[in-house]
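User: Assemble these into one structure.

Assistant: Restating your components, then the assembled model:
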Amino acid sequence: MPDDRADDGSAVPRLELRGVSKQFAGVQALSDIDFRLGRNEIVGLIGDNGAGKSTLIKLVCGYHSPDEGEILFDGAPVPDLTVEKARRLGVAAVYQERALADQQQLWRNIFIGQEIESRFGFLDVRKMRQETHKLMLESMGFTSTAVTPESVVKNFSGGEKQGIAITRALYFDADILILDEPAVGLSIKETDKLLRFIQSIKEAGKAAILIDHNIFHVYEVADRVVVLDRGRIAGRFGPKNRSVIEMTEIMREIAETGKASIPDDPHEEAVENEEVRP
Amino acid sequence: MRDTLSDSASPMLDAATLSGRGVSLWREPKRFVRTYAGQLGITGASLVLWLAFVISAPGTFLRGDIYGAFAATIPLFGIVAMPLTLVVVAGEIDLSFPSTMALGMVGFVLMWEATGNVPAAVATSLVIGAIAGLINGFVIVRIGVPALVATIGTLFFFRGLSLVVMGGRNVTLTALRDTFLFRLFVGEFFGIPMQFLWFLLVTAVTWVVLNRHRYGAAVYVIGDNIQTAELQGIRTKRVRTVLFVLVGVAAAFAGILSSLFIVSFFPSVGEGQLLPALAAVFVGGTSVFGGKGTVWGTFLGAFMIGTINAGIVAAGLTGFYTEFIYGAVIVVSVSIHALVQRRFG
């Protein structure tokens, strides 16, 4: 395995998976995965359907627990990770279909599971509406009077919903954002905005794991790319070292043969060293 | 973060919406109608029904007596309809509560006969209600039996258990007449039946829980999209289990009120309350698919359901019409909700 140290120079990654395996009813979803995420980098996670991408992120979110191996945050293993614990550790997942409760108002969606309370679990609805309104203007870009914190999110566009979910994650100080196919169903214009949104995660000093089928999206925003194939890591690449055509070739090769013929990129060259780019 | 995902670029929201208040009828009448369309619909429908009664039987419906009768009988199922609303909002159902009403009363009667202590009897009944709810919750949430199926089972099971334990025996409760708790539960307060005040209390508490407490927020999200709830860290199993416990306790309480009201305990208490309570919830606009529903809707729904019977008799129609009109009211109300949902939802 190449040294896959975090790109901020610190030896301790923000998030690390060590030798993680997971089975479902006898099917090996992940086997012996080593994965690291630096404090301020965006890692693209790509792979075909069934490669184990979703399983990997569900482990990180505490939704499943690994059969073997350990998950470390800032170098410390967290043996019994739950959804709540993962969230307290800064993980926020942005799932397109499962992020929002469609029939509920915007303000309820921002605060699902982490409502602002006055006392004894009673809600401070007024405060939540105000905060939602601020977020709408400052982060989500809803400036139309047709949309208020009371609006039900069902009729929002895919991009708007995605924006709500990302805004929610950043509002609650998540610094490990997990974006699962965020561009599915978005228009070209909305996708551009989404990619800039993802860039802004990095600019804000946070980290993200981006899952996407589309190599062009990943190429644009990811510092590193990890390719999964049939539950194993099939390759690690720094897209800035390679052209998008080269990356596409590598992807195709992995999909067909299960591994890449070229060796993994050494991490130090791969990330942040723009000057070594050919 | 300057980047945004929306294409809209119309004028800024006004200061009024920044205040964190809800939608005001006076400031934004159109938005108010859109936001509360469902609740306005049911309010309108119940007014229409009431006017129909007034026109067809003014002698009865313009005098107070009949309202006293309504206030005495509607709470007997309305009190269960409240927590049942939460259950349906969460996308579940509970059909077992009529039998829980009886099972709780079995505990009441046995404790009372053994000790003569009425508060202990009440406590026993409520605890049994809670246990019955826990059993439902366990079978549905932990074992994973769909609520419809599980509570059909416990509907028979709890009723059967009551009959077996009592050996079919009825118990006269006349000796309780002079106790404080009897007056507190089914006495009168300035001419208002006490059970009606209890119904108001349960309604108010349910409203607060559903709309102003994190528990209610969780109930809405679970009914809307349980995966979202889980991914956002809501303890869905616990929330769902508690729902059935709430219905169990409310059912036991309604069983006490029903039995004290007629001053005797029959192991058949609660039979006939299943459909009125469910009808109140659905007529009130709560979605059978979960995620949507209001306490106000159920409150009015209970009145609509509870007045039809007396209204039909007072209007001079024979009892044959009861179910006919009953059915018509239910079908029309739920159709209104479906239309409102399509238009404004």
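The longest helix of chain B spans residues 118-143.
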